[in-house]
Amino acid sequence: MRHIRLLLLIGFIAAESPFAQPAFADAGASSYVINGAVRDETGLPLDHVLVTLETRNSQALERTFTDADGRFSFTQIAPGEYLVVAEKVHYRTQTIVARAREPHTTALAVIRMPYDASAVKGERRPPWAINTSGPMFTGTADVEPWGSWYIEPWMYNYRTPSQGSSTYYMPQRLAIGLGHNLEFDTWQTIEGNVAGYPSTPRGVQVGDWGIGNFHAQLKYEWMADQDSYSFFALPTISTSFDLFVPTGNYTNLNPNLYGTDQFGNGTWNEGVNLILRKRFKPFELYGEFGDLIEDPTHVGPGYTFNNQINVVPPGVYQRVVDGNLLWWAGAFEHVLDSERGLGYVLEFYGQWQADRNLFFGPANAPSFSFLWVIPTIEFNWPTTRTLVCTWGFGVALPVMQYNYPRTFTPIGTVTIYW
């Protein structure tokens, strides 16, 4: 499975495919197909049925959904017999044995699904998993399976009117599924800074861009969502361990650029996160809580501290100790129409940097805190069997800040799955 996802201030692009394919002896042996159709008891086609291709010993190989005509197809598979499992809420799950045939065949594997209003629970009930834009800041607890990966470039525009400044923050993410409930992620950040009055003299505007900090994360999923239709079922719970490497420029700053040539804070950081996600149709809940240890570093004139306000004065060089950085985020998502992905997200995101470091004692960097809320609307268009585009538009609004500037972040997203 692969998916590619792009967020460029107004959006991001993503793609994903089903379960990883089994390895075959050669290309010619894997060119067979299974074409089929799913119908109800009266013979009418059933769309959006989850159809899973399995080996004869029930090992899942691939999955797809039926189209508006109830059709499905599995291609590039090896010859032989397979199990084909059809699942849809309010219908009894059906399993048939189907033989893979040569591509030119017109034979259909027909599956008939009896209606059953009580068929909404059970181990084989298809999970509710709708593609939407989702929250803007809160992480997801799900991990990629073995052999799965995705690339995720981001861009945020943090705007601080009181300082006349704007930052384009663009972490480029690569996530790789390692199997055994593990996922390894890396981010390499690109930053662009713009400064104007009152950060600069009136009438002067400067800017610069460069490479920011490198971020690596190892995530472990302790459990998966037990029932995506019940609020009371256990959620997906994961833990991540994070390392930040100071690859961005933070020393030898040019005073004529007024801090726009600083990218990152120059510290090695180690962190841990607890991440949760719970689906209960038509709602989803997200949560994340993290703690970051920032190692001491040496800085010089013009260096801007994490609170984005305090700056090291000219001619001063010093050792900086930042306090522990705690952050928290959560989101409530309501999907009003699963077919169109129409819904809204209410999210919050906050940080608090303490005045003490767990490992290095009292901090001499200024403490700060802030809390933002991010309302978002979302919808899907177009939606076909092979292509789904999800759209989301929102803005991060400051609710509370201590020793931190009021920052506004309008955001829009478009995600393309194919």
Low-confidence stretches: 1-27, 120-125
Tell me the number of helical segments per DSSP (H or I, 4 or more residues long). 0
Residue share in helix = under 10%
Main sheet characteristics: 14 strands, mixed
Strand content: over 45%
Provide the gyration radius in Å.
Answer: 25 Å
Give the SSE string.
EEEEEEEEEEEEEEEEEEEEEEEEE
Overall structural class, as computed from helix and strand content, comes to mainly beta
User: How many β-strands, per DSSP?
Assistant: 25
Termini, distance in Å? 11 Å
Mean pLDDT, all residues? 85
List the SSEs and their pairings:
Elements (H helix, E strand, L loop, with lengths): L1 E3 L27 E9 L9 E5 L5 E6 L5 E7 L2 E8 L6 E7 L8 E5 L35 E5 L2 E5 L4 E15 L2 E14 L10 E18 L12 E10 L23 E12 L2 E12 L2 E3 L18 E3 L4 E13 L4 E12 L2 E2 L3 E2 L5 E16 L4 E15 L6 E9 L1
Parallel strand pairs: 1-9, 2-8
Antiparallel strand pairs: 2-5, 3-4, 3-6, 6-7, 9-11, 10-11, 11-12, 12-13, 13-14, 14-15, 15-16, 16-19, 17-18, 19-20, 20-23, 21-22, 23-24, 24-25
